[in-house]
Design brief:
The complex is a heterodimer of chains A (369) and B (306). Chain A has 369 residues and is an alpha/beta fold. Chain A has helices spanning 14-30, 33-58, 72-75, 89-98, 126-129, 148-182, 185-190, 195-227, 231-264, 272-292, 297-303, 310-320, 327-353, 363-366, and strands at 63-68, 81-86, 103-107, 116-120, 138-140. Chain A has two domains: 63-140, D-Maltodextrin-Binding Protein, domain 2, CATH 3.40.190; 147-366, no CATH class. Chain B folds into two domains: 14-226, P-loop containing nucleotide triphosphate hydrolases (Rossmann fold, 3-Layer(aba) Sandwich), CATH 3.40.50.300; 233-305, Alpha-Beta Plaits (2-Layer Sandwich), CATH 3.30.70. The N and C termini of chain B lie far apart (51 Å). The chains are: A alpha/beta (369), B alpha/beta (306).
């Protein structure tokens, strides 16, 4: 054993310190049964959702289609169609408008490849379209930009994933800060590394875990959609999924820093709620706003620029095609800037509160100096 | 700043000067000054609420003082100096779900040791402390006494120059006390400055080279154990002889405190008077013992905190 007057080590760089802390965070999490089980359940739910969605779309009842004597032969004998033969185009369109049939096949002499076209009210039934090798021309009588149900489901999907991941990992983050405080491990840690290094390591460690969970969810969604043949949904969802992952990354760093700061302000696990409540609200609010306001373009546009709701609102807007190509970039810049500000503020609170045991540290005191 | 840990050499002498601290209107430390010297074990004793833990926290920088200074090797202790400190907080705590060796090695790595080195050091230290068979158990599965040993390992693993240990012996069985005492003495022999607080005055008495006594937030006595004993010993002697020692009562310059046949405890006005008593006693019969009585730490403690 070397003597204490001739220390044998050189130095520990900031990077190494951050890495060590992050490594421990991830390692201890991966060894926690509760974490592994809850992640497993989350992935199973996602898989089940995708598969059930796939089966349900396959098991839909026959599509009612109105045909005229000219177009009837084109679809005659095809499975899954309930044909109603009518006298002419006008009668067919009338049935469509009345909702008695989902679509009508009417003669279109000018269309050389098919000789007919599909008439539908709001959207053409994909089951009908998919029966043709090439898609015949579709005329919508009362076009809608996107399927409102799908828009709602996508909003809920992104919302739930963000809410669950952010609140789960955020709460874990705050708890692990308080654990270090309440067990006084923090006094040993701070004797070795600066508070900022500790904070950075914890935020990075938890972000890596949260991102891994999100990527696993995305992978399951993509694979599930391909396996169940829901390629059309996948095509629309691809780019919003990528954007969601990018927004989630920075949105989570923002929240994790704030959760860490909130955790540092109390000394006992029982008191966590009092300081993390405002941040939990910040996580919940956009989720509900996006779900309730997802058909209000103005509200969605605003929400897609607010850092806390952008990770959910912007991908939804991209999915429904309301956002211009540059909008996610601008929103991302806003998110990045607020991320930096949040980290600076959180680091200050964290440094000032970490060694203060006992009651709750006042915010004004935590921000001092 | 690219590195958080650049070791600088210090001489390891820790000096506290004029530390004051108040909580609201209550003054918990008042002009606290003492030294903790390299290569020596300094015992820090005082009753509950006397200010021991507050003093230690201020030394560690865990708590800010209202006034005064803490110097290491002659300069004010800065944040960067804290890596030279090993600390065992009063309220124990390590990560409950982390394995013992992993935890100790992790702390060593945070202090800049490489992975293999950190693990080897941790293991050697834990074995030394008698935890060799529990290396891969989680902290929460250990008994309190063993958690305590792990805590001591955590404070020592980076070979700190200064060790601040708050009640390192509380909760340990007598064998464990010996083990821990041995480890601390080895560290002191290697040149570390060690300050430890304890309620167990017998342990402090056996172990420490220097002693600091605090009461009501003020230092009542500090110095080497022998110095303090000399300062606080009254000129008291015990004589054990075959013959009846009743004659001592009539000796000039002598006050008998206790007497029973051949045994007498007396105070002498001067060392010469005591020596005269010894010579006379030898004339009366066989003398089995003639002992200057040294006060125990417990006695000094009671005396100085009054």
């Amino acid at each position: 054993m070397s003597t204490s007057t001739t220390p044998s080590t050189g130095g520990l760089s900031v990077g190494n310190g951050v890495f060590l802390v992050a490594e421990r965070e991830i390692g201890s999490k991966l060894r926690s049964k509760a974490f592994l089980i809850s992640t497993g359940i989350l992935l199973l739910i996602a898989l089940a959702g995708v598969l059930i969605g796939g089966f349900m779309s396959k098991n839909t009842t026959e599509t009612a289609v109105a045909v005229t004597s000219e177009t009837a032969p084109a679809v005659h004998g095809l499975p899954g169609l309930k044909l109603t033969e009518v006298a002419d185009t006008t009668a067919a369109e009338k049935l469509v408008r009345e909702g008695k049939v989902e679509a009508a096949l009417i003669p279109a002499p000018g269309d050389t490849s098919f000789g007919f076209e599909i008439v539908a009210l709001k959207s053409a039934p994909s089951s009908l379209q998919s029966m043709f090798a090439k898609t015949p021309k579709v005329t919508l009588l009362a076009p809608d930009t996107t399927n409102p149900l799908l828009r709602y489901l996508v909003a809920i999907g992104f919302g739930v994933v963000f809410l669950m991941a952010a609140s789960t990992f955020g709460a874990t983050m705050a708890q692990s800060v308080v654990e270090e405080k309440s067990t006084r491990v923090v006094e040993l840690l701070l004797a070795a590394i600066p508070a900022r290094v500790l904070l950075a390591g914890k935020v990075i460690g938890n972000t890596v875990l949260a991102m891994a969970q999100i990527l696993a969810l995305a992978a399951i969604a993509v694979v599930g959609l391909i396996v169940t043949g829901q390629n059309a949904v996948l095509e629309g969802l691809g780019s919003p999924l990528v954007w969601f992952a990018v927004f989630f990354l920075f949105g989570f760093v923002l929240l994790a820093s704030l959760f860490a700061a909130a955790g540092a302000m109390v000394s006992r696990q029982e008191d966590i709620g009092s300081t993390t409540m405002p941040i939990t609200m910040l996580v919940m609010a956009p989720y509900f706003l996006v779900i309730f306001l997802n058909d209000n373009p103005v509200a969605m546009t605003i929400l897609s620029y607010i850092p806390f709701s952008a990770p959910v609102a912007m991908p939804v807007r991209l999915f429904v095609g309301e956002a211009q190509w540059w909008e996610p970039l601008v929103s991302l810049v806003i998110l990045l800037v607020s991320c930096v500000v949040a980290i600076l503020v959180a680091a200050k609170i964290y440094e000032n509160s970490l060694l203060r045991m006992g009651g709750r540290v006042k915010l004004s005191e935590a921000l001092k100096g | 700043m690219t590195t958080v840990l650049t070791r600088t050499t210090t001489t390891g002498l820790l000096e506290l000067e004029g530390l004051t601290k108040s909580y609201g209107t209550r003054r918990v430390l008042d002009d606290v000054s003492f030294r903790v010297e390299p290569g020596r074990l300094t015992g820090f004793v005082g009753g509950n609420g006397a200010g021991k833990t507050t003093t230690m926290r201020i030394v560690l920088g865990v708590l800010g003082a209202d006034g005064g200074s803490v110097r290491l090797g002659g300069h004010d202790v800065a944040a960067a100096d804290r890596r030279h400190f090993g600390y065992m907080p009063e309220e124990r705590g390590l990560y409950p779900k982390m394995k013992v060796l992993e935890q100790v090695a992790y702390l060593a790595r945070l202090h800049g040791f490489g992975k293999a080195d950190a693990s080897a050091r941790g293991e050697a230290l834990l074995v030394e402390l008698g935890l060799g068979e529990r290396l891969h158990d989680t902290i929460e599965s250990l008994s309190l006494g063993n958690q305590q040993r792990a805590q001591i390992a955590a404070a020592l693993v980076h070979d700190p120059e200064v060790l601040i240990l708050d009640e390192p012996f509380s909760g340990l069985d007598p064998l464990a006390v010996d083990v821990v005492a041995g480890v601390l003495q080895t560290r002191a022999a290697q040149g570390s400055s060690i300050l430890f607080s304890s309620h167990q005055l017998d342990v402090v008495e056996r172990l420490c080279d220097d002693l600091v006594i605090i009461a009501g937030g003020t230092i009542r006595a500090s110095g080497s154990r022998e110095e303090l004993r000399a300062q606080h010993s009254s000129p008291r002697y015990e004589l054990v002889s075959d013959a009846d020692a009743g004659w001592i009562r009539s000796e000039p310059g002598i006050t008998v405190v206790d007497f029973e046949r051949g045994t007498a405890v007396f105070d002498a006005d001067s060392p010469d008077d005591a020596q005269r008593v010894l010579r006379t006693a030898l004339q009366h019969g066989v003398v089995h013992a003639f002992t200057p009585q040294r006060p125990s730490l417990a006695q000094i403690f009671k005396e100085v905190i009054q």
